[in-house]
Design a protein that fits this description.
- The structure is a single chain.
- By secondary structure, this protein is an alpha+beta fold.
- It folds into 2 domains: about 120 residues, no CATH class; about 110 residues, no CATH class.
- It contains 9 helices and 13 strands.
- It has a 6-stranded antiparallel β-sheet with strand order 1-3-4-6-13-12.
- The two termini are about 25 Å apart.
Length: about 280
């Protein structure tokens, strides 16, 4: 969703009470919101100047290849289309994104396993793993929480729509490393629920008992839903979800309500990149 926020803010930042809109200006505005792109093209269809002056942008299409939303992460493909976007122009000129009516966006992403694994090996991801604290079953206490760490995550896309993830568990006390491998299926239910199917866990080459996974999977299946976004004024549904040819393809439709606090939070983060903002 943050990718949609960056692109939406970039498109709307070209709105100006003077001057004309051209596709190149839209492309430049989007490039200001991301770290980089190998290929990027934008088309704005049938936008009379008077509509732009009033803060309205008609149908927008964007196609990106090799897009970097952040420096460490490459997304192989991004295709985006919007319905008409109507914003409060006065707020936009002050660096705030405020919609006059709901905005609808369709987004298609393709991520390759090699790009994901390159990201997983970055300092950013290792920093996240270092903050993840846990105890093994039967152990407790603050000292035990700091005993274990995770490192060297590797992801693979498998046949039958399954995903494999391997990671090393480091015992900092005994200075030992234990290999952990997870193999599970992924599916989307009702357009919003990500389901973890038939998970398999092995620890140091030994298959773990199923009961170790039951509580974790049940809890994850309850939390991995796009409906959690609805409390923030965002309705999102997955239209396509496929794993094939060592890549993941996802198509999502999202509708953002003008009252969504998500708009305010993302706009504050991106306001420095909007031309004319304070």
């Amino acid at each position: 969703m943050e990718i949609i926020a960056a692109i939406l803010a970039g498109l709307l930042s070209i709105a100006s009470p003077v001057g004309a809109v051209v596709d190149r200006l839209a492309e430049d505005a989007i490039r200001n919101q991301i770290s980089g792109a190998e290929q990027l093209s934008v088309r704005i269809d049938n936008v009379p100047n008077y509509q732009l002056i009033n803060g309205r942008v008609e149908h927008v299409r964007m196609a990106g290849r090799g897009v970097y939303p952040i420096p460490e992460l490459r997304i192989s493909t991004i295709d985006l289309e919007t319905d008409p976007i109507d914003v409060d122009l006065a707020s936009l000129q002050q660096g705030r994104l405020q919609l006059d009516e709901p905005a609808a966006v369709a987004l298609r992403l393709v991520l390759e396993a090699d790009d994901i694994n390159a990201f997983l090996q970055t300092e950013r991801v290792q920093g996240w793993l270092d903050r993840f604290q846990f105890n093994l079953p039967g152990q407790g206490g603050d000292r035990q929480v700091a005993r274990y760490g995770l490192t060297n995550p590797v992801l693979s896309f498998l046949e039958g729509g399954r995903v494999g993830l391997s990671v090393d568990l480091q015992d900092r006390v005994l200075n030992e490393t234990i290999a952990i491998d997870v193999d599970l299926g992924l599916a989307i239910a009702n357009g919003h629920q990500l389901q973890l199917i038939d998970p398999r866990l092995s620890i140091d080459g030994q298959e773990a008992p199923p009961q170790l996974l039951t509580a974790l999977i049940d809890g994850a299946n309850r939390q991995l839903t796009l409906r959690l976004l609805e409390r923030s004024g965002i309705v999102a549904r997955v239209l396509n979800f496929q794993i094939r040819n060592n890549e993941l393809e996802v198509a999502v439709f999202a509708k953002v309500d003008p009252s969504s606090p998500w708009l305010v939070n993302n706009q504050q983060a991106n306001s420095s990149a909007i031309p004319g903002s304070p």
